[in-house]
Amino acid sequence: MAEADAAGVPVPSSVRLVLLRMTDALAAVVDNRLRPPRQGDADDGHGLVVDGGGTDRWGSLLATGEAVFGRLDWWPAVTGTDVRTPLLAALLRPYGKKGSTPTVTRPARRPGHFSDAGLTILRGPEEIWCRCDGGPHGFLSIAAHGHADALSLEVRHDGVDVLADPGTYCYHGQPAWRGYFRSTLAHNTLELDGSDQSVSGGPFLWTRHARSRVLVADTADVSAGGTALWSAEHDGYQRSVHRRRVELVAAAKELRVVDEVLGALGPRRDVRLAFHLGPAIAVDLVGNWAVLTWTREGEVRSAVLDLPGQLNWRAHRGESDPPLGWYSPGFGRKEPATTLVGTGFTDGTASSAEFATVLRFCG
């Protein structure tokens, strides 16, 4: 688009409108450190590299968006500098000039729920950030870059991954690792009978998709008090529906997660509930009680995980056969990280089974 503007070649207004909406969406979903959600495949692809390796690519994108489209009052502040923004801004025609773009209403407040994507962001005090996934399994019928991560969570505290999405790691040549990083077990969600929610037909193919739907998305910013709420369900497991409810309670600085297996009456079903900790998190697990600690800019911070007592909990880290307990900070890279896995079953005598987890931040 920059080249077209510099050459005086018309660019359809629809292209500029899509880029504007993409930029507003990025501003809406990043955490306080300008990191976006980690979800599905990511391979660190770049179309044009003009900055050094230390440049914050997401801050750079927002800075360019501000120069081209103008920032909204609710946008996060961008404090870094880059080369790309002044370069492209010198070539691009500012949005809305010369009558080539339609009038569009931009969000007056920071959106927290994107219904088409099924992506919801909950925000709380002390920069608590929680991404909830209740969207489609992936793009079109093959969902090539989707992961079996329906109803998964991603939680950060002041930009630090506390409950982390493990990432992608690889595409080809290592089928066991490709299978793990896109599996249900590799995400912060519930697995039944040792199976993925969706059925894989190859490294870039899913032959059956779990269908998710969001039931509630109350995304009010509760930094100053109150409770934000999200609830969704999916039908990926035959005979049963997995429903999850998440409450972010400001006064208690805690996240309450309730997993229900509906349709549990009948033959009992094996359950595995996984919580993947970020690579910076140290954990002390005793029974169903986990104390989490990490350091942020020289300050020790902590949280506790009160895990469902009806499950048996173990910590896994850096295991390879089979893979479990890994975090991929970028394509082709992986490092050990602790995964807490609770195992048990639905007893088959009730129409539903419930598993409650509380993550409480201590400062």
From TrEMBL:
Q: What Pfam families does the record tag this protein with?
A: Hepar_II_III_C
The reply to whether Membrane figures as a keyword in the UniProt entry is: no
Q: Which GO terms describe its molecular function?
A: lyase activity
Q: Which UniProt keywords apply?
A: Lyase, Periplasm, Signal
Could you tell me which residue ranges the Heparinase II/III-like C-terminal domain spans? 107-346
Q: What is this protein called?
A: Heparinase
- What is the species of this protein? Streptomyces alboflavus
